[in-house]
Amino acid sequence: MKLKNKIKFLNDCLLVGDVLVIGDMHLGYEEQFQKAIFPGLHKKQIIKKIEGVFDYLEKKKINIREIVILGDLKHDFGNISNREWREVLEFLDYLKNKTYKITVIKGNHDKVLIPILRKRDIELRDFYIREGVCFLHGDGLFEQCLNRQTDVLVFGHLHPAIIIADKYKSEKFKCFLKGRWKSKTVYVLPSFTPVSYGFDLLDIDETNKNKKEHFIIENKELKNFEVIIYNNKDKKEYNFGKLRELID
How many distinct structural domains can be found in the chain? Predict the structure, then answer.
C-alpha cells in the first residue's frame, strides 16, 4: 500500500505511514530579542509538544521509522547564533532517540544550517521523495516532484491559520490545507513553533498580493483547498470546507 493511503493528521504535524512530518520550528527565535524573559522556553515548548505526539503514537502502538522536517528548523537567515547551535543540536539528539532516520528539507531560513547538520551526519535536501510522496518546504518547486510516480506533495512554509467566529467570540486556530494542485494531492502543514499561530488565511486577498513569491501555490488556487483543524484534546480533525467558502 502506498503512503498516500496512510496519511493521518496529528497535532500540527502529519503521519505518513511510518513517517512523522513536522516543519517550521524556528529554533533560536528568542535570539532576535536582546534579552529573553525566559531563555530557552521556545525549545522547551517544542519538545513538550512533540512529546505529546510521541505519547499518542506509543498508545496507538505506532512505530516511527523516519522523521521528515519540512524546513525552517532554525530562525536566523544569515548566521548561526549560539542559541541555534545549542538548541538545534539538542532537538536533533532528542529526535534521534525516537526514530531510525531524520531527513531535513531546506527552508528559506536554513541558508546556513549545513554546519549544524554535519555534527549529526544529517544531509540537507531541497526535496525528498519516498513511496510516491514528495516532501518540500513550499517556497520553490522541483520537477522531480511532479513526475508520474509522485501522487502527493507535502509542504510547510505558509504557516496557515484561520479565525473561526460566531456572534459571541472569535478564535484563531492553526490549520492544515488539503487540495488538488498540478494533478497531485497536496497537504500544507501548520508551523510547529508555539510562538505564533501563523498567517490568517482570511486575509489572503489583503496581504501578499503576489503570493507566488512567498508560497509556491497562488492565492486563487489555495482558495479551493479544504481547511482542516486538528483538535488535540479530542485527537480528531475537523474539516471546515473550502477556504473560498469561509472567506465569502
Answer: 1
